[in-house]
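We emphasize that the prediction below concerns an isolated chain of 598 residues; any contacts that depend on oligomerization or on bound cofactors are therefore not represented. The input was used exactly as deposited, without trimming of termini.
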Amino acid sequence: MTRERPTTKTPRTCGAPLRALVLASVAVSALIALPGATRAQEPPAEAAASGDAASTGRPRRPAAFETSPSQRGTSLTSPATPSRSGTFGTASGSAFGSEGNAAGSDASVSEEGVSRLPRFRTGAPGLTDGSAAGLGPGGRPSLLRQRAIPPRRLGSATRVITQTRTQQSVTDLRLTPVIRSPVSGLPLPTAIAPLGLVNPANLLGFGLGIGAPGPLTVDPAYAPLGLRFGAFTVLPAFTQSIGYDTNPNQTLAARARPSLALRSEGEVAIRSDWSQAEFTSEMRGSYLDYPDNPEASRPNAVGVSRLRLDANRDTRIDVETRFLLDSQRAGSPDLNAAAAVRPLFASYGATVGVQETFNRLQLSLRGSIDRQVFEDARLSDGTVIRQSDRDANQYGVRLRAGYEISPAITPFVETLIDTRVYDTPIDQFGLRRDSDGIAFTAGARVELSRVLSAEVSAGLQHRSYVDRSLRPIQAPLVSAALIWSVSPLTTVRFNQQTGVIETSVPGSSGAFTDVASVEVQHDLLRNLTITLGGTYLANTYDGVPIRERGFSTIARLDYRFNRWLTFRGSYLYSTLTSTSANSSYDGHAVLLGVRVNP
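Result of the prediction step, given as a token string:
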């Protein structure tokens, strides 16, 4: 007896549709099992896992770069991803080697935007299961996936490259404007710029007078930013100091009256931001108050403004204005009286010039006008000493021709012609002091990169007076200005100038003066600067036996807390020896103050 198997017969009318339905279900199952499908075609992780478990009877092996929503933001070695040895590298080392580790570390990024990026491979060597590697039937890559997105490079930091190129702006230095770092100190015009119209003896008090303090460069991190007004940058500053002066009136040691010193100083600097022109201005005003010696209290102000206009490539127009306000000391040979209050004097002027360049040849012509005004002196007994006969104007023309041998050296020759005219034709001593002068000089301008810049000239000057009782004066003319950057932390400045200044001493045509100053600035720290300086002065009065020799030294310390607050301490020693009665003096002064840059 034989057992026959039961057979099921299908009508021929429905065989073809059933076969088509079976093939379609198989195709859909194959697509669902693909690990690299797009997220729109990817079924939930739970369904895929259950489907694999149901079809194979064993846990499903994760694909090369497959992640599930529950695993985003976690490492591939977490318990949510089953593996043979607990790490991705050992589980699939035969398939990916070291590249699999790099890809695994990249997949552990917790950023949501990066985790949404499709991660799949179009093929990988060493995989035999085409469905696990994201391949079609027979191990061939899916044509649809190859067209959908390009393959990812193995081990490349896609996240870093994308952020660098799409989330960061690249700065083109050629399109960045050049902004000059402002400085905390303001350069002062030379005290004898309109030579003959001021008293250079006041230079010995540059710690408390006109020369205080010189230009001071600071680290850009502590430089004040200033206030912006259109195309101008304004750098205001205010300094309040307190100290002690052993001889505030600069008189004989026997008459010296020490006093507490209070100094209030205001400054303002203006810089333009124009493309074809430039405007700069530096102004300073201060008041020295001596509570224990009120007669020595005095104001002081100095300033200069410069405008450069570029008419074209070879033509330049320069305009300069300047002013100076100071006081006379009681022992000056021009006053030589015990005034109750130090009388004031002022000097102000302007210069207009044009410079033309012919290839390497430079020609410049400048005209200047300066005026000096003196206040009458009042003695302690009420007597008034008239000084209006010292008021005068000076007119000058300067012609210079220079030839540029190289960008570093430009020699030049210069001619100066000037005349001095007094408001009062005859002074109180019956002398007519109007005079004419002429000077010839030759020199060179040197610019060695940023290390050394200097201008040195020497020549001869001659001055003749209207009054025949006043002898003509012939004297050498020397001028030097040097800035030497010894190192990034040390700067040396040197200035020297000679000339003939006016005087009211009876019988003297004028005084030949020589002033030299040197200053060394060193940065101990980025915000700590020490400055040491010295000045030498020599005055020789023509026709009378009056000789003056003076020397002063200064030490200044600047500690910057930040951009707007600076502590400043300074010490000044000055001495002057003169053959004139009651003119010699020496003294010490110490000031401690706070400087504010709004």
